[in-house]
Amino acid sequence: MGKMDKKELPKGIYKRGGVFWIRYAGIDGKIIFESAKQGDRPGTKQQDAEALLHERKADVGRGKQPEIRKKIPNVTFKALSVEYLKWAKRQRSFKQKETLVNQLVTIFGAYPLRAFNSRLLEQYQTERMEKSNKQVKYQVGNKAGTINRHIATIKHMFTKGVEWELVEEDALKKVRKVKMLEENNRRLRYLSVEECGKLLKECPKHLRPIVITALHTGMRRGEILGLKWENVDLKHGFILLDKTKNGTRREIPVDGTLRATLTALPRRLDLPYVFFNPDTGLPYGDIKTGFNRACRKAGIKDFHFHDLRHTFASHLVMAGQDITTVKELLGHKSLTMTLRYAHLAPAHAVKAVELLDSILNETPTIQKLDNLEKNTVSEIGEKWRRE
User: Fold this and answer.
1) Is 208 in the same domain as 327?
2) Which sign, positive or negative, has the C-alpha torsion 333, 339, 345, 351?
3) 207 and 297 inside one domain
4) Is 321 in the same domain as 366?
5) Residue 333: inside a domain, yes or no?
6) Same structural domain, 39 and 81
7) What is the structure's pLDDT at 353?
8) What is the CATH number of the domain that holds 319?
9) Which of 148, 176, 204 lies at the terminal end of a domain, its last residue?
10) Buried/exposed 192-212: b ≥16 CB within 10 Å, e otherwise
């Protein structure tokens, strides 16, 4: 009976075990054997094999050699992370990405990539949002932005995994279904002029010039701590940043206060850095502790180092500087991020409206038009009576 069953199958289709296989000639004339078990097809039905054989013959007929995927092993998330970090070394933000990926490995490291789905990741989102959860081992109570960065990294890892043939595209489709959480990026904390003075007064000697640089340039913490003297031109009054977060060069003017601050700094011919630890000769790696202590002494609450950048931009806008110039100084790629400061310039908006009023002041108002109309009617009546 088995031999008769094989004869009854269409040409180019046969069965091995419980799975159907197909046989056809490629564009080079060589015979290709391929399992009908792939994608969403279980390969256990004759229709699966017939449909696949029809697709392959159609490709050959169009002169396209069918691409036969190798059987993908059951790779774990940890194995994918190793390959992903090798690839990510070329990126400027590798250190941050490496830290994030390693955090994910502690949670999902032993999971096979095929086990990932939208339910697993949505549950992970919920657990990280909860302020207290004794059942999980990782930090909870995260903000939406933090959780979104985790999910975005996982999605990109799976995208590269498909390219590297470490996981099937079906797994990627399941991961991509996970929606990002809604973020609230409206937080805008900046210091008043008086608060700036209090903060600088409480900063230790090594930290004060770093904070002054942030307040007078709007530079990011990493840009300041990694600043080299070769990028500082005090003679012409600017700082040139070659490597920035968005990958573009940026020139930042140096004002009088910053010039005096940088000129007073001790320099060592054997070190290229503007700000360095005199004990190690290396750039400062972590100034968070000292900065937070200075904020507490100054009575400043809910303030981070990055908010010095907000302080720089906010005071420029409040002084009447246009948004486009502020955007260039901050190094934003688009106006979207810079527009968060626009509401701080109400006086600037009033001046714009007053300017428009001065341009249009010769245009008759409604009252003037009404008076003009009445005067015209009176003149016509008087003229009619005289005639």
Assistant:
1) yes
2) positive
3) yes
4) no
5) yes
6) no
7) 66
8) 1.10.443.10
9) 176
10) eeebbebbbebbeeebbbbbb
Tell me how far apart the alpha carbons of residues 65 and 180 are, in angstroms, rounded to a whole number: 39
pLDDT in tens, 227-241: 999 999 999 999 998
Q: Mean per-residue pLDDT for 204-209?
A: 95
DSSP characters over 35-70:
ES-BTTB-S-SHHHHHHHHHHHHHHHHTT-----PP
Check pLDDT > 50 for residue 3.
no
- Token couple for 123: 């549950």
Q: Is the pTM of this model over 0.90?
A: no
In terms of residues, how long is the chain?
A: 387
User: What's the token pair of residue 13?
Assistant: 């289709």
Q: How many CB atoms lie within 10 A of CB 181?
A: 18
**If you count DSSP H runs as helices and E runs as strands, how many of each does the chain have, helices first?**
17, 6
- Between helix 144-163 and helix 169-176 the angle, nearest 10°, is 160
In terms of Cβ atoms closer than 10 Å to its own Cβ (0-12, 13-18, 19+), residue 274 is buried
Domain presence at residue 273: yes
Residues 218 and 312 grouped into a single domain: yes
- Pull the structure tokens for residue 179: 């929606």
Q: Which tokens is 5 given?
A: 């069953």
User: Residue 109 sits in which domain range?
Assistant: 77-176
- Dihedral angle at the C-alpha atoms of 175, 178, 182, 185, nearest 10 degrees? 0
Token pair in block for residue 286: 């972590």
Residue 77: CB atoms within 10 A of its CB come to: 24
Q: Is 314 buried (19+), middle (13-18) or exposed (0-12) by CB count in 10 A? A: buried
Pairing of strands 232-233, 250-253: unpaired
